Every structure is written in C-alpha cells, then in structure tokens.
Amino acid sequence: ETGICLESGIPRFTMTWKGQDDLDLRVITPGGFELNKENRVDPTTGCVLTLSTDPAVDGGPARDQWAENVACPPDGSATVGTYTFF
Fold first, then answer.
1. 65 bridge partner residues
2. What are the DSSP calls for 35-79, one per residue?
3. What are phi and psi for residue 68, nearest 5 degrees?
4. What is the mean pLDDT of each run of 10 residues along the chain (86 residues)?
5. How much is the pTM?
6. 79 burial level (CB within 10 Å; 0-12, 13-18, 19+)
7. Alpha-carbon distance 11 to 5, whole Å?
8. First to last CA, the chain
9. C-alpha to C-alpha distance for 12 and 35, rounded to whole angstroms
10. Distance CA 68, CA 62 (A)
11. Which helix (H) or strand (E) holds 10?
C-alpha cells in the first residue's frame, strides 16, 4: 500500500520512486508550455501537475514512496500533438 492516489487523464504522465531523493516531473505540451513545480496548470490543454506531499512535515509518519503526476482532461479534450516528458 503506497497511500498515493493519482488522477486519471488522456494523456497522463506519472513518475513514482522510493527513497528521499527530490525528483521532478516536467511535461512540455504541444504549445510549448512547461508543466513543473512552479507552473502546475496549463490553461490551453487543461493539464494539471500534482505532487506528493510529505506527511512528516505536519508531524505525521515519514514517507519513502513518492509520485508526481500530470493529468490532462479525462474526456480527451487536451490539445493533440507531441508531449515531451522528462
């Protein structure tokens, strides 16, 4: 059980990992918009970046499994074209 819930979308890009490394998912949409920690919503495609949070920050148990997820609208209405992710 990871305790991580991810949004669905068409398309969807997900990165998961274990450990305490700070990794960052980035997705560039067909119009050239880069979704990242600073820019979490693309107003053109409707794609949204969500990040895992660390419950230890609020006094909860430490986490060692993480996820970052970009989900575009589940109805497939996001811009058609090439999406680049890294």
1. 18
2. ESSS--B-TTT--EEEE---GGGGTS----EEEEEEE--TTS-SP
3. -125, 140
4. 70 91 94 96 96 66 84 92 96
5. 0.82
6. middle
7. 17
8. 26
9. 12
10. 17
11. none
Of how many residues is the chain composed?
86
Give the chain's largest Cα–Cα span.
Answer: 43
Question: DSSP state, 15?
Answer: E
Whether the CB-CB separation of 15 and 76 falls below 8 Å is answered with: no
Look-up: residue for tokens 């068409």? 10
CB 10 within 8 A of CB 55: no
Which residues does 76 contact at the CB level (< 8 Å), separation at least 6? 10
Write down the residue that tokens 């918009």 correspond to: 33
Instruction: Identify the CA nearest to 53 among candidates 71, 66, 39.
Output: 66
Instruction: Output phi, psi for 58, to 5 deg.
Output: -100, 20
